[in-house]
Amino acid sequence: MNDETPDRYVTFLGLDCDAKADKLYKMLQARMAGNDSPWVGYFEKKLAENTRMGHDMLRFVGAQVNALMSFFEEEEDEEALVLLHHLEYHCC
């Protein structure tokens, strides 16, 4: 980590975690649409629970890192995997 990168242990300012989590959610929605992967049903259930509990997408991503990683690996979605790794390392 260089001096220019904000440190999540000091502050979340400048990390834009919520917007990045929202972007990953949109990527997840796009991958789920018309997909017959068993992950789709799992994520539908977990997203409904997340909404019912009033949690934001960053909370969802943090709770589902491993499942999201498996799904995006299955889909060979490198862009989503890079963003997920960034969120996990810098925001969760």
Structure description:
- The chain is an all-alpha fold and 92 residues long.
- Helices cover 66% and strands 0% of the residues.
- α1 (17-32) runs antiparallel to α5 (78-90) and α4 runs antiparallel to α5.
- The mean pLDDT is 89.
Attribute tags:
92 residues, globular
Gyration radius, rounded: 14 Å
Q: What distance lies between the first and last C-alpha atoms, to the nearest angstrom? A: 16 Å
Global geometry: globular
**Main sheet attributes: strand count, strand direction, barrel closure:** none
- The secondary-structure element order is HHHHH
Number of strands: 0
**Mean pLDDT, all residues:** 89
Which structural category fits the helices and strands?
A: mainly alpha
Low-confidence stretches: none
Strand content: under 5%
Helix content: 55-70%
Number of distinct helices: 5
Quick structural summary:
The chain has helices spanning 17-32, 38-52, 57-63, 65-74, 78-90. The chain is mostly helical and 92 residues long.
Task: Itemize the secondary structure elements and their pairings.
Elements: H1 17-32, H2 38-52, H3 57-63, H4 65-74, H5 78-90
Helix pairs in contact: 1-5, 4-5
